[in-house]
Protein backbone atom coordinates (compact mmCIF):
# COMPACT_ATOMS: atom_id res chain seq x y z
CA UNK A 1 0.00 0.00 0.00
CA UNK A 2 2.72 2.49 0.96
CA UNK A 3 4.69 1.65 -2.18
CA UNK A 4 1.66 2.43 -4.37
CA UNK A 5 0.83 5.70 -2.62
CA UNK A 6 3.78 7.71 -3.88
CA UNK A 7 3.62 11.52 -3.62
CA UNK A 8 3.25 11.80 -7.38
CA UNK A 9 0.38 9.29 -7.41
CA UNK A 10 -1.30 11.14 -4.54
CA UNK A 11 -1.06 14.46 -6.38
CA UNK A 12 -2.56 12.90 -9.53
CA UNK A 13 -5.33 11.33 -7.46
CA UNK A 14 -6.17 14.66 -5.79
CA UNK A 15 -6.17 16.47 -9.14
CA UNK A 16 -8.48 13.79 -10.62
CA UNK A 17 -10.92 14.12 -7.73
CA UNK A 18 -10.93 17.91 -8.02
CA UNK A 19 -11.49 17.79 -11.77
CA UNK A 20 -14.31 15.25 -11.36
CA UNK A 21 -16.05 17.44 -8.79
CA UNK A 22 -15.75 20.46 -11.07
CA UNK A 23 -17.12 18.58 -14.10
CA UNK A 24 -20.07 17.17 -12.15
CA UNK A 25 -20.78 20.58 -10.68
CA UNK A 26 -21.00 22.32 -14.03
CA UNK A 27 -22.87 19.46 -15.77
CA UNK A 28 -25.61 19.55 -13.13
CA UNK A 29 -26.25 23.28 -13.53
CA UNK A 30 -29.90 24.03 -14.44
CA UNK A 31 -30.11 25.23 -18.01
CA UNK A 32 -32.43 28.02 -19.17
CA UNK A 33 -35.86 26.78 -20.26
CA UNK A 34 -35.73 28.52 -23.58
CA UNK A 35 -33.18 30.36 -25.59
CA UNK A 36 -35.87 32.38 -27.46
CA UNK A 37 -35.65 36.07 -26.69
CA UNK A 38 -38.70 37.35 -24.77
CA UNK A 39 -41.11 39.64 -26.59
CA UNK A 40 -40.69 43.31 -25.74
CA UNK A 41 -43.21 44.65 -23.28
CA UNK A 42 -45.59 47.40 -24.25
CA UNK A 43 -44.69 50.90 -23.20
CA UNK A 44 -47.08 52.20 -20.55
CA UNK A 45 -47.54 55.77 -19.48
CA UNK A 46 -45.74 56.89 -16.34
CA UNK A 47 -48.02 57.08 -13.28
CA UNK A 48 -49.28 60.46 -12.10
CA UNK A 49 -48.37 62.05 -9.77
CA UNK A 50 -44.70 61.19 -10.41
CA UNK A 51 -42.74 58.87 -8.08
CA UNK A 52 -41.05 60.72 -5.14
CA UNK A 53 -37.29 61.00 -5.27
CA UNK A 54 -36.80 58.66 -2.30
CA UNK A 55 -39.53 56.28 -3.47
CA UNK A 56 -42.83 55.38 -1.91
CA UNK A 57 -42.69 53.45 1.41
CA UNK A 58 -43.42 49.78 1.09
CA UNK A 59 -45.52 47.76 3.47
CA UNK A 60 -42.32 46.48 5.10
CA UNK A 61 -41.17 50.07 5.65
CA UNK A 62 -44.50 50.95 7.25
CA UNK A 63 -44.30 47.94 9.57
CA UNK A 64 -40.79 48.94 10.63
CA UNK A 65 -41.91 52.53 11.24
CA UNK A 66 -44.71 51.27 13.49
CA UNK A 67 -42.10 49.38 15.56
CA UNK A 68 -43.49 45.98 14.75
CA UNK A 69 -41.29 42.86 14.38
CA UNK A 70 -39.88 42.27 10.96
CA UNK A 71 -38.62 38.72 10.37
CA UNK A 72 -35.05 38.61 8.96
CA UNK A 73 -34.62 37.89 5.34
CA UNK A 74 -33.42 34.37 4.54
CA UNK A 75 -29.75 34.10 3.61
CA UNK A 76 -28.97 33.75 -0.01
CA UNK A 77 -27.26 30.49 -0.89
CA UNK A 78 -23.59 30.60 -1.75
CA UNK A 79 -22.82 31.03 -5.42
CA UNK A 80 -21.68 27.94 -7.22
CA UNK A 81 -18.16 29.20 -7.78
CA UNK A 82 -17.78 29.63 -4.01
CA UNK A 83 -19.04 26.10 -3.32
CA UNK A 84 -16.65 24.72 -5.93
CA UNK A 85 -13.72 26.62 -4.36
CA UNK A 86 -14.55 25.29 -0.90
CA UNK A 87 -14.70 21.71 -2.23
CA UNK A 88 -11.33 22.06 -3.99
CA UNK A 89 -9.73 23.57 -0.86
CA UNK A 90 -11.02 20.71 1.31
CA UNK A 91 -9.73 18.09 -1.15
CA UNK A 92 -6.31 19.76 -1.37
CA UNK A 93 -6.06 20.11 2.42
CA UNK A 94 -6.94 16.47 3.02
CA UNK A 95 -4.39 15.42 0.42
CA UNK A 96 -1.65 17.50 2.09
CA UNK A 97 -2.50 16.08 5.53
CA UNK A 98 -2.31 12.59 4.05
CA UNK A 99 1.16 13.33 2.65
CA UNK A 100 2.36 14.60 6.05
CA UNK A 101 0.92 11.60 7.89
CA UNK A 102 2.23 8.89 5.55
CA UNK A 103 5.32 10.17 3.75
CA UNK A 104 6.74 12.85 6.06
CA UNK A 105 6.79 11.02 9.37
CA UNK A 106 10.10 11.17 11.31
CA UNK A 107 12.19 8.14 10.41
CA UNK A 108 13.95 8.17 13.78
CA UNK A 109 11.53 8.84 16.63
CA UNK A 110 12.92 10.17 19.87
CA UNK A 111 13.06 7.32 22.36
CA UNK A 112 12.10 8.07 25.97
CA UNK A 113 15.30 8.76 27.88
CA UNK A 114 16.03 8.23 31.53
CA UNK A 115 18.37 10.25 33.69
CA UNK A 116 21.30 8.79 35.56
CA UNK A 117 22.38 10.36 38.83
CA UNK A 118 26.15 10.79 39.35
CA UNK A 119 28.57 9.31 40.08
CA UNK A 120 27.15 6.34 38.19
CA UNK A 121 24.08 4.36 37.12
CA UNK A 122 23.16 1.39 39.30
CA UNK A 123 26.34 -0.70 39.61
CA UNK A 124 28.28 1.18 36.95
CA UNK A 125 31.81 2.03 38.12
CA UNK A 126 33.33 5.45 37.66
CA UNK A 127 36.81 5.93 36.24
CA UNK A 128 39.44 7.89 38.15
CA UNK A 129 39.26 11.00 35.96
CA UNK A 130 35.44 11.28 36.19
CA UNK A 131 35.56 10.80 39.95
CA UNK A 132 38.20 13.51 40.35
CA UNK A 133 36.09 15.98 38.36
CA UNK A 134 32.90 15.12 40.27
CA UNK A 135 34.57 15.25 43.68
CA UNK A 136 36.06 18.69 42.96
CA UNK A 137 32.62 20.01 41.99
CA UNK A 138 30.88 18.43 45.00
CA UNK A 139 33.21 17.65 47.94
CA UNK A 140 30.28 16.04 49.76
CA UNK A 141 30.22 13.03 47.45
CA UNK A 142 31.24 9.76 49.09
CA UNK A 143 32.97 7.19 46.94
CA UNK A 144 31.65 3.68 47.48
CA UNK A 145 34.27 1.24 46.37
CA UNK A 146 33.22 -1.90 44.54
CA UNK A 147 34.96 -5.08 45.72
CA UNK A 148 37.29 -6.49 43.13
CA UNK A 149 36.49 -10.15 42.61
CA UNK A 150 39.21 -10.53 40.01
CA UNK A 151 36.72 -11.13 37.19
CA UNK A 152 37.34 -9.36 33.92
CA UNK A 153 34.86 -9.51 31.06
CA UNK A 154 36.17 -11.28 27.97
CA UNK A 155 37.28 -9.07 25.08
CA UNK A 156 34.89 -8.68 22.14
CA UNK A 157 35.00 -11.53 19.66
CA UNK A 158 36.82 -10.39 16.52
CA UNK A 159 35.21 -11.84 13.41
CA UNK A 160 37.33 -10.16 10.73
CA UNK A 161 37.97 -6.80 9.11
CA UNK A 162 35.32 -4.13 9.55
CA UNK A 163 33.48 -4.11 6.25
CA UNK A 164 31.70 -0.89 7.27
CA UNK A 165 35.05 0.90 7.12
CA UNK A 166 35.59 -0.18 3.50
CA UNK A 167 32.30 0.70 1.82
CA UNK A 168 31.71 0.50 -1.89
CA UNK A 169 32.07 4.08 -3.11
CA UNK A 170 28.91 5.30 -4.84
CA UNK A 171 27.89 8.56 -6.42
CA UNK A 172 26.64 11.25 -4.01
CA UNK A 173 22.84 11.36 -3.84
CA UNK A 174 21.23 14.53 -2.47
CA UNK A 175 18.10 13.59 -0.51
CA UNK A 176 16.18 16.08 1.61
CA UNK A 177 15.04 15.00 5.09
CA UNK A 178 11.35 14.54 5.80
CA UNK A 179 9.52 17.86 6.18
CA UNK A 180 8.00 16.90 9.54
CA UNK A 181 11.40 15.92 10.91
CA UNK A 182 12.85 19.21 9.69
CA UNK A 183 10.10 21.15 11.46
CA UNK A 184 10.74 19.29 14.75
CA UNK A 185 14.52 19.82 14.52
CA UNK A 186 14.15 23.51 13.66
CA UNK A 187 11.80 23.96 16.62
CA UNK A 188 14.50 22.75 19.04
CA UNK A 189 17.18 24.82 17.31
CA UNK A 190 15.04 27.97 17.66
CA UNK A 191 14.83 27.34 21.41
CA UNK A 192 18.61 26.92 21.63
CA UNK A 193 19.32 29.96 19.44
CA UNK A 194 16.99 32.17 21.48
CA UNK A 195 18.63 31.16 24.76
CA UNK A 196 22.15 31.61 23.41
CA UNK A 197 21.31 34.98 21.90
CA UNK A 198 20.04 36.21 25.26
CA UNK A 199 22.57 34.59 27.60
CA UNK A 200 25.64 33.47 25.60
CA UNK A 201 26.03 35.69 22.51
CA UNK A 202 29.57 34.47 21.81
CA UNK A 203 28.34 30.88 21.51
CA UNK A 204 25.41 32.04 19.39
CA UNK A 205 27.79 33.70 16.95
CA UNK A 206 29.95 30.55 16.86
CA UNK A 207 27.16 28.38 15.45
CA UNK A 208 27.98 27.16 11.98
CA UNK A 209 26.20 28.30 8.84
CA UNK A 210 23.84 25.79 7.18
CA UNK A 211 25.64 22.90 5.52
CA UNK A 212 25.31 22.41 1.80
CA UNK A 213 23.09 19.43 0.83
CA UNK A 214 25.78 18.40 -1.64
CA UNK A 215 28.40 18.29 1.14
CA UNK A 216 26.19 15.97 3.20
CA UNK A 217 25.65 13.72 0.19
CA UNK A 218 29.41 13.56 -0.46
CA UNK A 219 30.09 12.63 3.19
CA UNK A 220 27.46 9.87 2.98
CA UNK A 221 29.10 8.55 -0.20
CA UNK A 222 32.55 8.48 1.45
CA UNK A 223 31.23 6.72 4.56
CA UNK A 224 28.94 4.36 2.66
CA UNK A 225 25.89 5.10 4.84
CA UNK A 226 22.94 7.43 5.16
CA UNK A 227 22.67 10.10 7.82
CA UNK A 228 19.46 9.88 9.87
CA UNK A 229 16.95 12.51 8.84
CA UNK A 230 17.15 14.40 12.15
CA UNK A 231 20.95 14.63 11.93
CA UNK A 232 20.73 15.78 8.32
CA UNK A 233 18.11 18.41 9.19
CA UNK A 234 20.30 19.63 12.06
CA UNK A 235 23.33 20.04 9.77
CA UNK A 236 21.18 21.93 7.28
CA UNK A 237 20.34 24.35 10.11
CA UNK A 238 23.83 24.65 11.67
CA UNK A 239 26.95 22.93 10.38
CA UNK A 240 28.37 22.26 13.86
CA UNK A 241 29.58 24.71 16.50
CA UNK A 242 27.38 23.94 19.51
CA UNK A 243 29.01 22.80 22.76
CA UNK A 244 27.19 19.88 24.42
CA UNK A 245 28.64 18.62 27.71
CA UNK A 246 32.36 18.10 26.95
CA UNK A 247 31.92 17.83 23.18
CA UNK A 248 31.46 20.30 20.34
CA UNK A 249 29.31 19.37 17.35
CA UNK A 250 31.44 19.00 14.22
CA UNK A 251 30.77 20.28 10.68
CA UNK A 252 30.00 17.69 8.04
CA UNK A 253 33.48 17.81 6.49
CA UNK A 254 35.05 17.12 9.89
CA UNK A 255 32.56 14.27 10.44
CA UNK A 256 33.78 12.46 7.31
CA UNK A 257 37.43 13.15 8.14
CA UNK A 258 37.07 11.85 11.73
CA UNK A 259 35.21 8.76 10.53
CA UNK A 260 38.07 7.95 8.17
CA UNK A 261 40.74 8.41 10.85
CA UNK A 262 38.85 6.26 13.38
CA UNK A 263 38.48 3.52 10.78
CA UNK A 264 42.22 3.70 10.14
CA UNK A 265 42.85 3.16 13.87
CA UNK A 266 40.41 0.28 14.33
CA UNK A 267 39.51 -1.67 11.20
CA UNK A 268 38.51 -4.88 13.02
CA UNK A 269 34.94 -6.09 13.21
CA UNK A 270 33.45 -7.69 16.31
CA UNK A 271 30.40 -9.88 16.70
CA UNK A 272 28.37 -7.01 18.18
CA UNK A 273 29.15 -3.63 16.64
CA UNK A 274 27.93 -1.86 19.79
CA UNK A 275 30.31 -3.89 21.96
CA UNK A 276 33.48 -2.38 20.48
CA UNK A 277 34.84 1.13 21.01
CA UNK A 278 34.45 1.89 17.30
CA UNK A 279 32.61 0.51 14.28
CA UNK A 280 32.34 1.90 10.77
CA UNK A 281 28.57 2.15 10.97
CA UNK A 282 28.88 4.84 13.65
CA UNK A 283 28.75 8.56 12.75
CA UNK A 284 31.02 10.82 14.84
CA UNK A 285 29.12 14.07 15.38
CA UNK A 286 31.10 15.70 18.22
CA UNK A 287 34.60 15.73 19.72
CA UNK A 288 36.19 16.96 22.94
CA UNK A 289 39.77 17.37 21.64
CA UNK A 290 41.08 14.47 23.78
CA UNK A 291 40.24 11.59 21.45
CA UNK A 292 36.68 11.07 22.68
CA UNK A 293 33.73 11.42 20.33
CA UNK A 294 29.99 11.81 20.47
CA UNK A 295 28.55 9.36 17.95
CA UNK A 296 25.24 8.36 16.37
CA UNK A 297 24.51 4.75 15.46
CA UNK A 298 23.41 4.98 11.82
CA UNK A 299 21.38 1.76 12.21
CA UNK A 300 19.67 2.27 15.60
CA UNK A 301 19.76 6.09 15.56
CA UNK A 302 20.62 6.61 19.24
CA UNK A 303 23.47 8.75 20.58
CA UNK A 304 26.59 7.29 22.22
CA UNK A 305 30.04 8.20 23.47
CA UNK A 306 33.22 6.58 22.12
CA UNK A 307 36.12 6.76 24.58
CA UNK A 308 39.75 6.77 23.40
CA UNK A 309 40.56 4.22 26.11
CA UNK A 310 38.49 1.59 24.32
CA UNK A 311 34.90 1.81 25.56
CA UNK A 312 31.64 2.64 23.85
CA UNK A 313 28.57 3.61 25.87
CA UNK A 314 25.13 4.70 24.76
CA UNK A 315 24.53 6.78 27.86
CA UNK A 316 26.66 9.91 27.24
CA UNK A 317 26.87 11.85 30.48
CA UNK A 318 24.82 9.12 32.12
CA UNK A 319 21.69 9.80 30.03
CA UNK A 320 19.96 7.54 27.52
CA UNK A 321 19.40 9.57 24.33
CA UNK A 322 17.37 7.90 21.62
CA UNK A 323 18.13 10.19 18.66
CA UNK A 324 19.86 13.38 17.57
CA UNK A 325 16.50 15.14 17.78
CA UNK A 326 16.14 14.06 21.40
CA UNK A 327 19.68 15.30 22.09
CA UNK A 328 18.74 18.78 20.86
CA UNK A 329 15.54 18.69 22.90
CA UNK A 330 17.40 17.75 26.09
CA UNK A 331 19.96 20.50 25.50
CA UNK A 332 17.16 23.06 25.02
CA UNK A 333 15.42 21.87 28.20
CA UNK A 334 18.66 22.07 30.20
CA UNK A 335 19.37 25.61 28.97
CA UNK A 336 15.88 27.02 29.52
CA UNK A 337 15.34 25.37 32.92
CA UNK A 338 18.94 25.64 34.16
CA UNK A 339 18.86 21.91 34.84
CA UNK A 340 21.69 19.39 34.41
CA UNK A 341 21.95 17.21 31.36
CA UNK A 342 23.09 14.00 32.99
CA UNK A 343 26.26 14.81 34.90
CA UNK A 344 26.68 18.28 33.36
CA UNK A 345 24.97 21.60 34.07
CA UNK A 346 25.08 24.55 31.63
CA UNK A 347 26.65 27.83 32.68
CA UNK A 348 27.86 30.98 30.91
CA UNK A 349 31.43 32.25 31.23
CA UNK A 350 32.20 35.51 29.43
CA UNK A 351 29.33 35.11 27.00
CA UNK A 352 30.32 31.53 26.17
CA UNK A 353 28.27 28.44 27.00
CA UNK A 354 30.16 26.00 29.22
CA UNK A 355 29.18 22.80 31.03
CA UNK A 356 30.30 22.06 34.58
CA UNK A 357 29.87 18.78 36.47
Question: How far is the N terminus from the C terminus?
Answer: 51 Å
Number of strands: 10
Q: What order do the SSEs take from the amino end to the carboxyl end, as H and E?
A: HHHHEHHHHEEHEEEEEHEE
Q: Please identify, by name, the CATH architecture of the domain at 160-356.
A: 3-Layer(aba) Sandwich
Choose one word for the global shape: elongated
Report the average pLDDT across residues: 77
- Extract low-pLDDT stretches: 106-126, 143-147
Overview of the molecule:
- There is one protein chain.
- By secondary structure, the protein is α+β, with helices and mostly antiparallel strands.
- The chain has a domain at 160-356: SMI1/KNR4-like.
- It is 38% helix and 11% strand.
- The strands form 3 sheets. A 6-stranded antiparallel sheet has the order 2-3-5-6-7-8, sandwiched between helices.
- β7 (303-307) and β8 (311-313) form a beta hairpin.
- The longest helix has 23 residues, at 80-102.
- Residues 210-337 form the Knr4/Smi1-like domain.
- The chain crosses the membrane at residues 6-27, 81-103.
- Residues 37-56 are annotated as: Disordered.
- This is Knr4/Smi1-like domain-containing protein.
- Keywords: Membrane, Transmembrane, Transmembrane helix.
Keywords:
Knr4/Smi1-like_dom, membrane, KNR4/SMI1_regulator, transmembrane, two-stranded antiparallel ribbon, about 350 residues, 10 strands, 6-stranded antiparallel β-sheet, 10 helices
Provide a short characterization of the protein structure:
This protein is an alpha+beta fold. The protein is 38% helix and 11% strand.
